């Protein structure tokens, strides 16, 4: 699917990068996360992000941002949820942010025209603001006054059965919720897997404190 690569700037997924067994906050594949139940009450009327109960971690995704900065992504057995931890120094180093994401949609892209319409130059993704489900978010990445390019991220994913790589072109938006240090995040990602399948995922997230989760 060379036209996808040309349009989005993809390169072929590379060989898998080794993923750590233990990550930040003691998180690892096979462990479980307990979310503070008070969060659901706190976010009521402030955010539409759903807070689950206890969730088992099925797989780990690792993104090397360079300059000793990492994103560790933990995908749950319940596929509606995933947790992202940004660290600096090393993978299990200083925690800079923790975000719980809910998957809101996942669409397979079958043509260049469809990609242009959904996430390319004919879409609204990449503009300074984006309105999603009637709520306006502000772009976090890019300084252009108009539409900006999606940001490339290369993710190494591992679970107990397999390891593989996913190439992303992503754009992040955010808004204030009115709660201290709790922003709502809107993440779009055009993804290509090792088989060449292209998809667009939409995730809605909320900033967490490290004390909002317990690792079981």
Q: Let me know the largest β-sheet.
A: 8 strands, antiparallel, barrel
Question: How many structural domains does the protein architecture include?
Answer: 1
Number of helices: 3
**Poorly predicted runs of 5 or more residues:** 12-20
Rounded average pLDDT: 91
Span between N and C termini?
A: 42 Å
Question: How is the largest sheet built, in terms of strand order?
Answer: 2-3-4-5-11-10-9-8
Helix content, binned percent: under 10%
Write the topology of this structure.
Layout: H1 2-8, E1 32-35, H2 38-43, E2 55-66, E3 69-76, E4 81-88, E5 94-109, H3 112-118, E6 129-132, E7 135-139, E8 151-159, E9 163-179, E10 182-192, E11 198-208, E12 213-215
Antiparallel strand pairs: 1-2, 1-12, 2-3, 2-8, 3-4, 4-5, 5-11, 6-7, 7-9, 8-9, 9-10, 10-11
Structure, explained:
The protein has 216 residues and is mainly beta. It has one domain (2-215). It has helices spanning 2-8, 38-43, 112-118, and strands spanning 32-35, 55-66, 69-76, 81-88, 94-109, 129-132, 135-139, 151-159, 163-179, 182-192, 198-208, 213-215. The protein has an eight-stranded antiparallel barrel with strand order 2-3-4-5-11-10-9-8. Strand 4 (81-88) and strand 5 form a beta hairpin.
């Amino acid at each position: 699917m060379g036209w996808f690569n040309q349009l989005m700037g993809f390169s072929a997924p590379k060989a898998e990068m080794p993923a750590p067994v233990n990550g930040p906050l003691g998180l690892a594949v096979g462990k479980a996360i307990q979310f503070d139940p008070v969060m659901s009450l706190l976010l009521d009327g402030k955010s539409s992000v759903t807070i689950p109960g206890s969730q088992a971690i099925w797989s780990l995704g690792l993104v090397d941002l360079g300059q000793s900065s990492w994103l560790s992504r933990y995908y749950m057995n319940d596929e509606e949820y995933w947790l992202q931890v940004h660290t600096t120094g090393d993978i299990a180093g200083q925690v800079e942010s923790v975000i719980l994401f809910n998957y809101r949609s996942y669409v397979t892209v079958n043509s260049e025209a469809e990609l242009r319409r959904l996430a390319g130059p004919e879409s609204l993704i990449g503009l300074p603001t984006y309105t999603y489900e009637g709520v306006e978010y502000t772009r976090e990445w890019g300084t252009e006054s108009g539409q900006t390019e999606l940001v490339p991220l290369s993710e190494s994913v591992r679970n107990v059965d397999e390891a593989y790589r996913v190439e992303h072109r992503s754009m992040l938006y955010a808004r204030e919720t009115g709660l201290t240090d709790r922003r709502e995040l809107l993440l779009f990602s055009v993804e290509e897997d090792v088989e060449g399948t292209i998809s667009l995922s939409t995730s809605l997230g909320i900033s967490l404190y490290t004390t909002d989760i317990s690792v079981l």
